[in-house]
Design brief:
The complex is a heterodimer of chains A (about 350) and B (about 200). With about 350 residues, chain A is an alpha+beta fold. Helices cover about 45% and strands about 15% of the residues of chain A. The model of chain A is unreliable at about 1-15 (pLDDT under 50). Classes of the chains: A alpha+beta (about 350), B alpha/beta (about 200). Bound molecules: iron/sulfur cluster.
Chain lengths: ~350, ~200
């Protein structure tokens, strides 16, 4: 896997995702290739990336793509994601939706069908809980002092039992701001608290983690998690758009301004096994040190070199091939996410009776 | 009532191959670009230029627009040849002659359109397979014509209903189908049998 990654200063093509990371880079189109012009001081380096080798582009920071370059990318259905240097998403540029409105309409119909929507939302929560539990169990097996971990596993198990019993309200109160899903949010919240409460125990000192803090992350581990979740959100959003669904209409997550609610639904199950495990592994193997993050007014960000390593590990994880838990064949995690999107569309269209979450043992 | 939208001739080929594929491509506008599709488009590019060539007795017209009001069909013939009074359509396909009858159906539908336009009878046409580099002559028998008429009726019915039919039984076709990664025939079949799915609610957590 490593061997396939090509690297240049400020631009890494890791498998099919082109990450543009060098500030002040200009990207033009030149025949069938992108021409990346690095800023002065970088020996005015020029890099050419064949379009055929790119599935999507992630732009981190102040980088310019010319209109012809963007047009060439959109023409080939290659999405361009704009992120801040910290990983906060500004949005994506994607090719026009096809005429495929059937799945979208089915999704909207599902959104207003509370029992069926509740069932799918419950599966999204279940996927997350089952995979959080799997991550903790994996680490608990390899250590002596695992009482706290096993305690958290018990709490997650209790949450899963409660989840199995949860029922949608027979009638939706007009002032129900949770859209009838309040119980699911409660269960998800308590299990997540148990999980994040012990996540710090999995990290080698001096790394510390006391709990999840978002917007802005006020410690290095939260900064790493947030960065990883942003990348995962982008990947998932792009896949949803490619399938032709509306990423803004979620089943568990409420639609909100600029929120890719459906992407958040789908990725719940993938957070622990993709992002959390990459963060834990990088920390414990010394691939990241506390000095790789710099503090800026109380918020943390990854320094350039470390960010590059992080992107590389993240892509490696997405491209890692595993045996699919339900279908039994070997596929990459990235294709697993795509399959979940397609299965959700098929559930919305009534082709399959149940949305099955992606879970690992 | 909706006015009946004409069905593109190329979509008949998809339908003859698999009804689900027809709805994906014609109704939902799905098209996965895999190497076969791209290669096919490149091979076609040479033919798609249009124009007429005279070669002695033989007149070749490329990329001829044809349609049938009676059947509600529209599309292009890659090539229409006229030789000593006889007219016949020629379709170009990448690959080799195949076991499915979809290419034959598409060609015969072209002939039906030409017949309606010109008021003649066209007894046969040909398919040129690039990989085999040879022409296969196709007789437009009464049986083939009846099959094509039934296919056209089915196309209009599916287009009107808009719903995805289930995956086809002949999985050998799925293995050669560019839409398999989104159609997921095996996966849908497995998940449609609810009892076959491992459910976390019932498992020993
Ligand atoms: S994969 Fe099989 S069922 Fe699906 S469209 Fe192709 S041929 Fe039809």
């Amino acid at each position: 896997m490593r061997g396939e990654a090509e690297q240049w200063t400020g631009a890494e093509r890791l498998m099919a995702t082109l990450y543009l990371t060098e500030e002040q880079t200009t990207v033009k189109i030149e025949g069938e290739a992108l021409r990346l012009q690095m800023p002065r001081g970088q020996e005015r380096q020029v890099v050419r990336v064949p379009l055929a080798k790119v599935d999507q582009v992630v732009v981190l920071g102040n980088i310019t793509l010319t209109t012809p370059a963007l047009q060439a990318l959109l023409e080939r259905g290659i999405a361009v994601h704009y992120l801040s240097a910290r990983g906060r998403s500004y949005g994506s540029l994607v090719a026009d939706w096809g005429k495929n409105s059937g799945p979208r309409l089915a999704l909207y119909a599902l959104y207003t069908d509370l029992p069926r929507r509740f069932a799918a939302a419950r599966q999204c929560v279940a996927g997350k809980l089952i995979n959080m539990r799997a991550v903790l169990l994996r680490y608990a097996r390899n250590r002596e002092d695992n009482a706290a971990l096993l305690e958290a596993v018990q709490q997650i198990r209790a949450a899963l039992r409660a989840l199995a019993r949860a029922q949608p309200p027979a009638q939706l109160a007009t002032d129900d701001r949770m859209g009838g899903l309040g119980e699911l949010f409660g269960i998800e919240g308590s299990a997540s608290a148990a999980y994040y409460g012990v996540l710090g125990l999995l990290l080698k000192p001096p790394w510390q983690f006391v709990g999840r803090v978002r917007r802005p992350p006020t410690d290095p581990v939260n900064a790493l998690l947030s960065f990883g979740y942003s990348l995962l959100t982008n990947q998932t959003t792009a896949l949803i758009q490619a399938v032709g669904l509306d990423p803004g209409v979620g089943l568990l997550h409420q639609p909100g301004f600029g929120k890719p609610a459906l992407a958040l639904d789908i990725m719940e199950a993938f957070r622990p096994i993709i992002v959390d495990s990459v963060v834990i592994t990088m920390i414990n193997t010394g691939q990241l040190t506390p000095g790789d993050l710099e503090e800026e007014l109380g918020a943390f960000r990854l320094r350039d070199r470390a960010r590059r390593t992080f992107l590389e590990k993240f892509e490696e994880r997405l491209n890692e091939r595993i045996r699919h838990p339900v279908f039994g064949y070997q596929i990459s995690y990235r294709r697993c996410i795509e399959l979940q999107v397609r299965l959700l569309a098929k559930y919305a269209q009534g082709e399959i009776p149940r949305y099955v979450p992606f879970t690992v043992r | 009532m909706h006015a009946r939208e004409p069905i593109p001739l190329a979509m008949l080929n998809a339908l003859a191959y698999c009804p689900r594929r027809f709805v994906y491509e014609h109704v939902q506008g799905e098209m996965l670009l895999n190497e076969h599709v791209v290669e096919g488009a490149l091979l076609h590019a040479g033919i798609d230029l249009g124009g007429t060539v005279w070669e002695g007795e033989r007149v070749q017209q490329r990329r001829v627009y044809v349609w049938s009001e009676r059947l509600g069909l529209v599309g292009f013939c890659d090539l229409v040849e006229t030789q000593t009074g006889a007219i016949y359509p020629v379709e170009y396909k990448k690959g080799r002659p195949r076991r499915w009858f979809n290419d034959h159906a598409q060609l015969c539908a072209q002939a039906l359109c030409l017949e309606e336009r010109l008021g003649i009878t066209i007894p046969r046409g040909a398919i040129f397979y690039f990989a085999a580099r040879r022409r296969e002559v196709v007789e437009f028998t009464a049986t083939l014509r009846a099959e094509v008429e039934a296919l056209v009726a089915q196309a209009h019915a599916l287009a009107l209903a808009g719903r995805l039919p289930p995956p086809i039984e002949q999985r050998a076709r799925c293995r050669e189908c560019s839409l398999e990664p989104l159609c997921l025939p095996d996966e849908v079949e497995q998940l449609a049998q609810e009892h076959a799915i491992p459910a976390w609610e019932e498992s020993e957590l």
